[in-house]
Amino acid sequence: MAEQYEPTPHGLSRFRQSLKAWLDEVRPCVDLDGPHVAHFRARQIQALMALLPLSVIGNAVNTVTLAWVFWDRMGEPLWLAAWCLAVVLSLGVIGLLWRHRLISDGRKRVASPRAIRVVVAHMGLFAALWATLPVVLFPDADEIGSLLLSTVSVGMICGGAFMLSPLAPAALAYVGVLFCGCLLALMRSPYADNGALMVMLSVYAVVMVGIIFTNGRMFISRLRAQAETERQKQLIDLLLRDFEEHASDWLWEINAEGRLRHVSTRLAQSFALPVRQLLDRSLTGLLAEMLPPDEPEGAHSLRHLTSCLRLGQPFRDIELPVEVGHEVRWWSLTAKPLFDERGRAAGWRGVGSDITQTRQARDELARLANYDALTGLANRHRFSTELDRLSRSPEEATRPCSLLFIDLDNFKQINDTLGHTVGDQLLRRLGARLRTCVTDGDLLARLGGDEFALLTWAHADAVAADALAARMLALIREPLQLEDAQVVVHASIGIAEAPRDGSDPRALLQCADLALYAAKAAGRATWRHFAPEMAAQALARARLQHELGQALQAEQFTLHFQPQMRLHDGEVLGFEALVRWQHSERGLVGPGEFIPVAEETGQIVPLGTWVLREACRQAARWPAHLRVAVNLSAVQFRSLSVIDLVDQALAESGLAPERLELEITESALIDDHEGAHDTLSALRTRGVRIAMDDFGTGYSSLAYLRRLPIDKLKIDGLFVRALGSDPDAQAVVTAIISLARALRLETTAEGIESVEQLAMLKALGCDDVQGFLVARPMASEDVSPYLQRTCALVAA
Among candidates 562, 544, 478, 554, which has minimal Cα distance to 769? Predict the structure, then answer.
C-alpha cells in the first residue's frame, strides 16, 4: 500500500512561494496601473470588438447547427428559436454598448474601470445564455446530440478563452460561467455516471485559464512596449525639435543619389538659402559652389567627403570652409549611411556643426604655440622646429646658414630697478628693432627672458654675419625712452655657422652658446664666432665644475692669510683669509681659476660657508687684538641665512664679533639696497665690522654709501699699482681717501708692491695697506712665526 503524501512545512513554503510568484506574474493582467491605464483599457475593449464580427459568424453557425439538429427533438421548438435569436442579437447589442463605453480624450481612446466591469458582466451573461442550452438539452439528447453538444460547448469554451484573453477578467467570467453550465449539464446527463468527463472538463478549464492569463500578460506587455516606444518617439521628436530650434548644429539627410531631403529651417538658415532651393539639390555640388577659392584644405576635405559618400563609409568631423553671405565659415560634417529593409543603400543621415569660433580659437592656440606673446616673434618651439629641418632635410643640411645668439647684458638690472612693466616694454621695443635686421626666409625668435636667436641664410658667411652682428648691437644700444626713464641696453652675440660648425641642431646650438659665453668673457657688448678651442675650454670648465663639487665634499680647500698693516706705525692689524684649492693632481690652485666657476654654478655658497667657519676658527688662536677679514660673495650676502651663518661661525669658534671683518663688493649692495641696509645693520649690531671691497671699480654712489653702515673702504689694487705712472689713478685714490675721511671711514689699499707706492699712500693719508710688499699670503701655520718676526722688527 502506497504511503499517503503529506506535504512538509518546507514543501508548503515552496508551494506558497511558487503560487505568489505566479500571482505576481498574472496580476498585471487583472489590475492595470500606470499613466496609460485608461488607454490600455480602451485597447483591451477594442481588441475584443475587432474579433466581434468573427464571433457573430461563429455563434450564428453554432446556433443554426444546433437548431437544425434539435428542432424536431424538442417538444417546444419555439424556445430553441428564441434562444438562437437571443444569442445572435445579444452580440450586436454588446458591440454597440462597448463602443459607447469608449471615450476620446482628444488624442486617443480611453475607457474607465466601469467600462471594464460592464464588459465582464456582458461576457458573464452571454456565457450564461450559452450555458442554458446544454443544461436543457443534455438530459434528453441521444448519442449524436450529446456528442454535438459536447463539441460545441468545448469549442465555445476554447474559442471564448482565446478571443477574450486580451481582457482576462472577461475571459475568466465567460469560461467560468460556461464551465459551470457544462458541468451541471454533465451531472444531469446519463453518460456522466463515472465522473471521468467531469474531470476532463475541469482539467480543460484549468488549461484554458492558464492560456487566458498567458495571452493576457503578453497582450498587456505588448501594450506597455508600444506605449514606451511611443513615449521614446515623442521624446526623440521633442529633442530633435529643440535641437533644431536652439542648437548651433543642424541635421541633414540625403537620398541614395546624394540629394537633400527633409530640409529643416535650421539647415536652410545655415546655408542662407530658402528651403525650396535646397530640396533635391546635390549636397556635394552645393558645397563645391560654396567652397572659397584658393583653399587647398577645403578642396581636400570635399574630396574626402565625396569619397566616403561614394564608398558608403561613415565619416566623422570632416572640416571644410564654406562661403556663406560673403563670410567664410567653417563646418564640421558627421554622418552614417542608411539602409532599407533589404539592406540596400537608402541614403545618408548626419549632423552639421558651425565650428568657426572653435576653428579660430584653435588657430589662435596654434599661433600662440609658435609665437611669443610679448614680442610677436617666433618662440622657442617654433625656432627648434625650424632648426630641426637642418638635420631632417638633406637640402637644408648642405645650405650654409648662420645662427646668432643674442643676450642682453644689463637687462636684469633694468628689470629689477625699473620694474617688470618697463622690462616688458624694453623687450617689445628691442624685438621690433631686431625685426628690421631680418630678411625674408630668416627666422628671428625670442627664446625666453632676454635671450634672442636669429637663424639666417642671407648672412651665412663670416663677413656678412659680422656686419649683421655689428648692426644689431648698434640698434640695441640706441637709447630707449620707457615711461619716465631713458634706458641704454647692451648685448653680447655668439655666432655659429653651418655646416662649418656642424649641421646637427644640438651641436650648432652648443657652438653658438659657447661663442656667446666667449663674448661675455671678452667684456660684453661684443660678438664672437665659435672656435674649436672654445669647446675645449668649456670641457675644461665642466671638468673643473665637477672636480670642484668633489673637492667640497672631500674638503680639499685650505686658507692662506695675508697681513694688513697700519701705515703710521707698521703694526699688523689682522689678516685677510684667502682660499686655496689643494688639488690632488694639480697641486695648489689659485682662487682666480675656480672662484668664477663656483659663482656661476652656485657652489660659492657652500665654499664661502666653509671659508667663514675656518677663518673664524683659525683667528681664534691668534692674539686678541688681531682681526680676520673674510670675503662674502654677493650670493651669500643676499641669502636670508647670512646672519645666522655669521652667528654660528662666531659661536663655534669663540671668536669675538669685533675681530671679524666682512668684505662685501659694491654689486652685492646695489642690487638690493634696502635689504643690504637691514643685513648690514644686523651685523653691525653684533659688533662685526664691514668693509667695502674693490671700491671704485663698480657703481659707486655717494647716496647709498652715506646711508649704509660701513667701517672701511678697500682701494682696489688696480689703482694702487698705477699710482706712479697714471695721474688719473692717483686722482682716484686721493678722492677715495678724502671721501673716507669725510664719512669717517677707514681705508685699506690692496696690492701694494713697491716702496714708492707705500710712500705715496702714506702721504695721501691712507690708513692701512696690504700686498706683496708687506707679505705674501701664508699658510695658517706660518702666521705665528710671521707675527713673532714682525713684533721683533717693530720693537727694534
Answer: 562
The grid coordinates listed for 367 are 599661433
This prediction's pTM: 0.50
> Do residues 319 and 330 lie in contact, with contact meaning Cβ atoms separated by under 8 Å?
yes
Q: Are 355 and 380 in contact (CB under 8 A)?
A: no
Confidence of residue 15 (pLDDT cuts 50, 70, 90): very low
Give one word for 651, left, alpha or beta, with left for phi > 0 and alpha for psi -120 to 50. alpha
Question: Is there a contact between 426 and 414 (Cβ–Cβ < 8 Å)?
Answer: yes
Give CA 697 to chain center in angstroms: 52
Helical ranges in 687-781 per DSSP H:
702-707, 717-721, 727-742, 755-764
Beta bridge partners of 690: 662
How far is the C-alpha of 736 from the C-alpha of 192, rounded, in Å?
A: 147
Amino acid identity for residue 27 in this structure: R
Are the C-beta atoms of residues 676 and 714 closer than 8 Å to each other?
Answer: no
pLDDT in tens, 570-616: 899 999 999 988 877 777 877 877 777 777 777 888 888 999 999 99
Q: What is the DSSP string of 719-745?
A: HHHTTTT-HHHHHHHHHHHHHHHHTT-
The three cell numbers of residue 522 are 671678452
- Determine the 3-state secondary structure of 275 from DSSP: helix
Residues near 716 by beta carbon (within 8 Å), at least 6 away in sequence: 694, 695, 696, 697, 750, 751
pLDDT digits (tens, 9 = 90+) for 738-758: 988 988 899 999 999 999 999
Residue 374 exposed, middle or buried by CB count within 10 Å (0-12, 13-18, 19+): middle
**Nearest in space to 710 (alpha carbons), one of 675, 674, 746:** 746
Q: How far apart are CA 152 and CA 145, in angstroms?
A: 10
Beta bridge partners of 531: none
pLDDT above 70 for 698: no
pLDDT digits (tens, 9 = 90+) for 493-536: 999 988 888 777 788 888 999 899 889 888 888 999 988 888 77
**Residue 628: pLDDT over 90:** yes
pLDDT of 62 reads: 77
One-letter amino acid of 158: C
Tell me phi and psi for residue 497, to 5 degrees: -120, 135
Centroid of chain to Cα 524: 43
Q: Taking the alpha carbons of 539, 543, 544, 549 in that order, is the dihedral positive or negative?
A: positive
Asked if 97 and 122 count as a contact pair (C-beta separation under 8 A), the reply is yes
Element (H, E) at 674: helix 673-686
Answer yes or no: are the C-beta atoms of 407 and 459 closer than 8 Å: no
C-alpha 700/C-alpha 665 separation (Å) is 11
Amino acid 5: pLDDT: 43
Are the C-beta atoms of residues 182 and 131 closer than 8 Å to each other? yes
- In the predicted model, what is the mean pLDDT of the chain? 81
- pLDDT of 626 higher than 50: yes
Query: 663 to each of 316, 599, 680, 714, 775, how far by Cα in Å?
Result: 73, 16, 11, 9, 20
> Which H or E element spans position 600?
helix 591-601
71-82 tens-digit pLDDT: 766 556 677 777
CA-based nearest residue to 133, from 191, 197, 69, 190: 69
Under the banding of pLDDT at 50, 70 and 90, the label for residue 23 is very low
* Tally of CB atoms within 10 A around 103: 12
The total number of residues shown for the chain amounts to 796
* Secondary structure string (H, E, C) spanning 61-89: HHHHHHHHHHCCCCCCHHHHHHHHHHHHH
Contact 659, 627 (CB under 8 A): yes
What are the φ and ψ backbone dihedral angles of 382, each rounded to 5 degrees? Answer: -65, -40
Q: What does the block give as the cell for 677?
A: 641696509
C-alpha cell at 419: 620694474
**Per-residue model confidence (pLDDT) at position 573:** 93
Amino acid identity at 55: S
- Judged against a pLDDT cut of 50, whether residue 19 lies above it is answered with no
Q: Are 385 and 454 in contact (CB under 8 A)?
A: no
